[in-house]
Write a structure and sequence with these properties.
Strand content: 5-15%
Strand order of the largest sheet: 4-10-9-8-7-5-6
Structural class: alpha/beta
Radius of gyration: 23 Å
Helix content: 25-40%
Number of helices: 15
Oligomer: single chain
Shape: globular
Length: 484
């Protein structure tokens, strides 16, 4: 089902769209068309959305219908709008252009390359002692076959206890241990999203989530996040009610890549709207342990779940170490058993030794996470200061948690800038990797997980190529990179 946007909603998204006064003022219809194109390129207005009728939008903007008609005509001429008599007009991109959203591995063989495509930290110093302690525990499990499809009981209990401390009473039977958060997502999609089913995701969003949905051949609808304010509650809930997706995927805690934190009131409304629409929620809590400022954390989305509509996924990649490959699913006990049955056909179970390491790390979680937060806070502030000095024309909102910063560039140059930056030893994740269909070219994700000196040097290199980008030479083939 095609999502539609009302006149007052589009007017709110457009904001101050009028041409600025001056000698080179463009006509109002051209300014309106340009503003709509900007919303599309930024991902705030999804593709395939039916725009309001000309009269309705004219009333909402307090302009003449003739102006709206001319703007719609200009959008059709540039390929940003498709119209059919009796069916309305909906958003498109010229030539049906699409950009793939999955990341691929590349060898890490360039020692001078600063990799800002990967939003993950190095291991904490506590990992080696935890591994040694886990090896001492291992003999207790050597008399069995070693397959635990739902996870080791002691690790399941530790994860359940962490949820209970956050205000969501949870038993070990409600936890499935997985090989990372990505596998947690994949298993839930295998169980709950039939091939070709409709799903709703944020845009921008985590690229590997889009890859997992593409593997299910899901029909993806999107809800755009604003750079400054994040979720538009009315638009998000409206999209959910109109599309009635089989599944809705959200990242409410320090959203990847924007860093936004979903407010409590919207969390509660989202669960209620999902229940009314018959949609299940996948809530990705990968960054929930990483508030960097002194803020009160909202309750988990699962707090508001009364009908088993919410499945929470998380893991140890961001706050601890990605190489550990420990993730989990929190759901109803019957759903966990169904997921475990599917998991047996995938990889049987997670490694016992890694699970024992996770148990020991979770016992000293406060110590590890506190140090990680302080480290990330310093690196975030270093990155923000470097951007302000070297690239002051870029717009950004300082995230209050997580590991990534979402910058609005001074033009639709994200992919070109990423290609140019690689020539000076910086690997970037361009904006289109976080959306669908070639949008988000005005944006760039910048993680602050590397040492502060590397971040400052990376920004210096990026600035050095940005100023010459308008006169850049030839395009070149690039090796695909991993985005995490």
């Amino acid at each position: 089902m095609t999502t539609s946007v009302r006149g007052d909603q589009l007017a709110r998204l457009l904001g101050r769209w009028h041409s600025l006064p001056g000698r080179r003022r463009s006509p109002d219809y051209a300014a309106l068309a340009g503003a709509v194109r900007g919303l599309l390129s930024d991902g705030r207005l999804a593709l395939g959305v039916r725009l309001p009728a000309e009269r309705e939008l004219a009333e909402a903007l307090a302009i003449s219908r003739t102006t709206v008609s001319a703007a719609y005509r200009a959008l059709r001429e540039t390929g940003h709008l498709a119209s059919r008599r009796g069916a309305g007009s909906w958003t498109t991109l010229p030539h049906g252009h699409r950009v793939a959203s999955s990341g691929l591995w590349t060898p890490d063989d360039d020692l001078d390359m600063i990799d800002l495509g990967c939003a993950a930290s190095a291991a904490p110093v506590e990992l080696v002692p935890a591994a040694r302690a886990a090896a001492d525990d291992l003999p207790r499990y050597l008399g069995s076959a070693g397959y635990h499809p739902t996870g080791l009981p002691e690790l399941r209990a530790a994860v359940a206890e962490a949820y209970s401390r956050r205000g969501v009473p949870t038993s070990a039977e409600q936890i499935l241990i997985t090989s990372g958060t990505q596998q947690a997502l994949d298993l839930v999609l295998r169980l709950s999203v039939p091939v070709g089913a409709p799903v709703l995701v944020e845009t921008p969003t985590y690229p590997n989530a889009l890859a997992a949905l593409a593997a299910r051949r899901a029909r993806i609808s999107t809800h755009g996040l604003d750079l400054e304010t994040g979720w538009d509650g009315e638009m998000l809930l409206g999209a959910l009610r109109q599309t009635r997706p089989r599944m809705t995927y959200v990242i409410p805690e320090f959203h990847n890549p924007t860093g936004h934190l979903m407010p409590t009131e919207l969390r509660e409304r989202l669960v209620a709207a999902a229940h009314s629409a018959g949609s299940d929620l996948i809530v990705d809590e990968s960054f929930v342990d990483l508030p960097l400022d002194d803020i009160a954390m909202p309750p988990p989305v699962a707090v508001f779940d009364r009908h088993s509509r919410v499945t929470s996924i998380g893991g140890m990649s961001k706050a601890y170490w990605g190489g550990l490959r420990i993730g989990w699913v929190r759901a109803s006990a019957p759903l966990v058993q169904r997921l475990a049955a599917i998991r047996v056909g995938v990889d049987m179970a997670s490694p016992v030794l890694e699970q024992l390491v996770a148990v020991h790390l979770l016992r000293i979680a406060d110590e590890i996470v506190t140090a990680r937060r302080a480290q990330l806070r310093f690196r975030r502030d270093t990155l923000v200061a470097a951007l302000g000095e070297q690239l002051p024309e870029w717009r950004l909102v300082v995230p209050r948690g997580g590991v990534t910063l979402w910058a609005e560039l001074d033009g639709p140059i994200s992919s070109a800038l990423s290609r140019a930056a690689e020539d000076v030893g910086v690997r970037l994740a361009p904006g289109p990797r976080f959306g669908l269909d070639g949008t988000l070219e005005r944006f760039l994700r910048l993680p602050f997980t590397l040492p502060a000196d590397d971040l400052s040097e990376a920004v210096r290199r990026i600035a050095s190529v940005r100023h010459d980008l308008d006169h850049a030479a030839r395009p070149a083939w690039r090796t695909p990179v991993v985005i995490t």
